[in-house]
Amino acid sequence: MRSFTESFRTWRRRFKAALPYVRRREYRVLERKYAELIEAVDRFASPAAQAQLHIAKPVQQGLAGDVCLFVSFAEQPELKPHVAQHILHLLAAGIQVILIVNTELPARSLSIDAELLDRLSGALIRQNTGFDFGAWAHAWSLCEGTERWSRLFLVNDSIVGPLSTADFTRMIDRVRSSDCDVVGLTEALAPQRHLQSYFLVFNAPALQSSVVTTLFARMLNWPSKSQVIDLYESRITSLLATQGLRCEALFPSLSGDPLSSDDTSLRWAELVRAGFPYLKTRVIARHPQDEQIRAWLAARSAAEPRP
């Protein structure tokens, strides 16, 4: 049953949406000006590939099939435990993984487990700039023969999982059977509908077009996370759609309210029960005593694949 507070908030948002036409028109003018401003300033940060880079393992060329560019941020001189565990699941699913670690530490101080490193198709230790999109674009610039790839997975370390091997397997099967060009797991509806960027998949038609190459070639190392979100995450879905690419979220928004459409933060339990195999790291941090989360994490640990 919905709480009074939630019902009131929904009513208030609907009331605002029904305000006089002139206000909605003014909002659209501001929205257009904001988009134009973004286009104008999208020229002043350094190219993604200009970040300092240490190659812990050269990127394997001539790869074919499914390839993942996995980005992680390292505050300590080792990978976060959940990163290695997630990579092992991806490898077990037949996805070749190139790891990119953004860090402010000396590159040679970072330790990667030797058995894991041996199974990777490349490992790059990168200057901490440009966040995920800068790292993905930088790694892409080092890859040759991408036309042989069946799919490109873009994944970051903001999700912990899989919580269930069965749900993970079903998710990967759904990705591989999708007839859309770009697949995300979840979507947000504000400031416009967009696939959330912690897990994106470009299928062969997208890779065989010039769209992805052009997209990565334009990416820059913006200094703030909000800039990266505004310039890339929230815009890429619409940019791809204007190029004729079909975009799909495997777990569409459970809310019709754009202002509360981030299910990974607000409806994480419903998502997991619907077969979503991950939890956001921020959700785990906010609910350290939640028994349901503890049980899911315990079940995940018991089913970890090994190198």
What does this structure look like?
This protein is α/β, with parallel strands linked by helices and 307 residues long. The chain has two domains: 4-41; 48-302, Spore Coat Polysaccharide Biosynthesis Protein SpsA, Chain A. It contains 13 helices and eleven strands. The strands form two sheets. Strands 1, 2, 3, 4, 5, 7, 8, 9 and 10 form a nine-stranded mixed β-sheet that branches. A two-stranded antiparallel sheet has the order 6-11. The model has no long low-confidence stretch (mean pLDDT 88).
CA-atom Rg in angstroms: 20 Å
Mean pLDDT: 88
From N to C, what is the helix and strand string?
HHEEHEHEHEEHEEEHHHEHHEHH
CATH topology of the largest domain: Spore Coat Polysaccharide Biosynthesis Protein SpsA, Chain A
**β-sheet strand percentage:** 15-25%
Helix content: 40-55%
CATH class wording of the largest domain: Alpha Beta
Number of strands: 11
Low-confidence stretches: none
What is the helix tally? 13
Shape: globular
**Largest sheet, strands/sense/barrel:** 9 strands, mixed
